[in-house]
Amino acid sequence: MKPQGNEMANGLTPNNGLDLNDPSQYHTDGQLFLTEAFKIIMTEVLRKGTDVNEKVCEWRDPDELSALLDLELRDKGEEQPQLLQRVQDVAKYSVKTSHPRFLNQQFAGVDYHSLTGRFLTEALNTSQYTYEAAPVFVLMENEVLRKMRAMVGWTDGDGIFCPGGSISNMYALNLARYKTFPQVKGQGLWALPRLAVFASKESHYSVQKGASFLGIGMDNVFVVKADSRGCMIPEDLDEKIALAKSQGAVPLLVHATSGTTVLGSFDDLNRTADVCQKHKIWMHVDAAWGASVLFSKQHRHLMNGVNRADSVTWNPHKMLLTGLQCSVILLKDTTGLLNQSHSASATYLFQQDKFYDMSLDTGDKSIQCGRKVDCLKLWLMWKALGSEGFAARIDKAFALARYVTEELVKRDGFQLLEKPQYVNVCFWFIPPSLRGKNKDADYQERLAKVAPVVKERMTKKGSMMVGYQPQGDNVNFFRLVVLSPYVSQQDMDFFLDEIERLGKDL
Fold it and tell me: What is the dihedral sign for C-alpha 220, 173, 249, 241?
């Protein structure tokens, strides 16, 4: 590496590791750094990070971690050996979400074909808005969306990749509003009456955020009752729509859910569609978590009726392990509603006299300008596994969820919240000191403290990671999410044993 020089004529100041004044040397040194950094990634993240004998997390308190990482940004750059140590430290102290005992979120595990697609996407560094900038990916996105729509049950339609399920759900709100009141695009909220949105009490919080963001208002989200399994009650939906109309509101959209965040519940889509059809309301299905069951012959019945929806959110980065982020909004519409509602026709980007088919410039459908390529990782993984491979993964996850549920109810001190519909297993662990005391006045208060303490202990130990939460009248309970194909029955047994070890003295 060349020594640091003085201020250069082009205004760039070299750091201590890379000489920006010599492009050839810069590339040589940069590629060497990338090669060495990749070795660290392979060892620390992909080998150790997936090894059941390694920790899920090397926990440090915030002040200690900040000091260890030396986060301060300075005027002078660092030498490459020091930078490689930074890479090592980031890998060491990050949560290993590919670890078989990371059971905390609705994403986990690693698919190496998808990961290859992610590396390739980052290296190519293009934006998915025009065919001229991303010819491969425009065609690829169209094909992936076509296949996903076919799985929903539509022979035609539209769609686009979005930065996460929350944004996909917001797209549905905006599209429903534009279809009902197209003047909103030009005139804004002045052109609108009071609008009403309907969602189950178990629906994702993005419904509330979307209503706020789009100016509909959180107070105009009518909360529909759910049954004990967490499924929206269609009769109450019908009543809430009638209530909104009686208050002078215009019903806009019904937000159904396939795979709720906590319980993993699936709304009855056919009965929901009947209500939507009766009232002529846009039906959106938030299947960010649950749509991947469509691959499985055994379990796709959970989404019977999804073909009757107007729009569907689907996050392959969840159950399919595509990697963050990978979310789509799928539409039954064939009239170009997505483009009509979002286009601004920027002439510097979407010129109308290009030498190729301008319908391939799909970027104006999006609320974004620069748009990350999210289709490659899914396409490459799908090519590798095929639909049958996805089905096998999903069926295995269901089987493991059934297994751990059956084992859980056999053990003293474990109480199931509700029999799972999906791969979310929700339960309380009741330590020996609380067993048989559920009628005591302070029982619920004491039980609520169990899950947070056990979670703290497992996290600091690094043995595993699983989430907990309260819900309605239910005090804190654990939510085990089983989805990684690298999880085994032995991991499920370890999980139950570890909960008992960590909580028996409480």
Answer: negative
- Quote the CA–CA distance of 338 and 353 in Å, as a whole number: 22
Phi, psi at 305, each rounded to 5°: 100, -5
pLDDT tens for residues 46-105? 999 999 999 999 999 999 999 999 999 999 999 999 999 999 999 999 999 999 999 999
The CATH number, out of the four listed (3.20.20.70, 3.40.640.10, 3.90.930.12, 2.40.50.100), of the domain defined by the range 127-372: 3.40.640.10
Structure tokens at 181: 């009141």
| CA distances, 455 to each of 60, 386, 480, 498, 502 (Å) | 15, 37, 12, 11, 9
C-alpha distances in angstroms, 145 versus 196, 444, 500? Answer: 30, 47, 45
Backbone torsions φ then ψ of 441, nearest 5 degrees: -65, -35
Domain ranges for the chain, please list them. Answer: 127-372, 383-503
Domain formed by 383-503, architecture: Alpha-Beta Complex (3.90)
State how far the Cα of 93 lies from the Cα of 65, in Å rounded to an integer. 8
Q: Rounded to whole angstroms, what are the CA distances from 265 to 61, 224, 298? A: 35, 14, 17
- Same topology, domains 127-372 and 383-503? Answer is no
Q: What's the rounded Cα separation, in Å, for the pair 173 and 190?
A: 17
pTM, 2 dp: 0.93
Contact status, residue 443 vs residue 415, Cβ threshold 8 Å: no
Sequence-ordered strand ranges (E) for 442-494: 465-471, 474-481
In whole angstroms, how far apart are CA 388 and each of 46, 187, 188, 485?
25, 49, 47, 14
Q: How many CB atoms lie within 10 A of CB 183?
A: 11
471 three-state secondary structure: strand
Residue 196's DSSP bridge partners are 251
Selection from 94, 69, 104, 64 nearest residue 458 by Cα: 104
Assess contact for 244 and 222: CB atoms under 8 A. Answer: yes
Q: Which positions of the chain have pLDDT values less than 50?
A: 1-14
Do 367 and 342 contact (CB within 8 A), yes or no?
Answer: yes
Return the DSSP state at 472: T
**Joined tokens for residue 222:** 């009518």
Which amino acid is located at 411 in the chain? R
DSSP label of 46? I
The overall average pLDDT reported for the chain is 93
Looking at residue 370, the DSSP 8-state letter turns out to be S
Strand-pair partners of 255: 199, 284
